[in-house]
Design goal:
Layout (H helix, E strand, L loop, with lengths): L3 H4 L3 H19 L15 E5 L10 E5 L10 E3 H36 L1
Antiparallel strand pairs: 1-2, 2-3
């Protein structure tokens, strides 16, 4: 049985484009809050302080350790990542407090049934 790439000359290109799109999707999905510990490329996410850009000197970034400016690696302003993460955590706490209130109401109803 021969390999599919031998039968279809476009298979390798289709596969490459699918992998590229999958990486772009991971980047877009992971662009809220703190990034995961790994970039979709497999590189580690590290904290870096800008040393080169005049207006950004001293600004902190969460960045892939093998970053290339091709849109396929994570580079995120540290302050924005923390603000988004705090907002996400506040929303989670709010949802959990609503659930706790509902559970307290249910417990009170069960207590009244006795």
């Amino acid at each position: 049985m021969s390999d599919i790439s031998e039968k279809d000359p476009y298979y390798a290109e289709m596969k490459r484009l699918k992998e590229l799109e999958d990486r772009r999707t991971l980047i877009a999905d992971g662009d809220y809050g703190l990034p995961p510990t790994r970039c979709p490329c497999g590189g580690r996410i590290i904290e870096e302080t800008s040393q080169t850009e005049a207006e950004d000197i001293g600004r902190r970034y969460l960045i892939c350790n093998v970053f290339e400016n091709d849109g396929l690696h994570i580079r995120k302003n540290w302050v924005h990542a923390i603000q988004e993460e705090v907002t996400k955590l506040k929303n989670e706490v709010h949802e959990q407090s609503k659930q706790i209130r509902k559970l307290k109401e249910l417990v009170a109803r069960v207590e009244n049934m006795r």
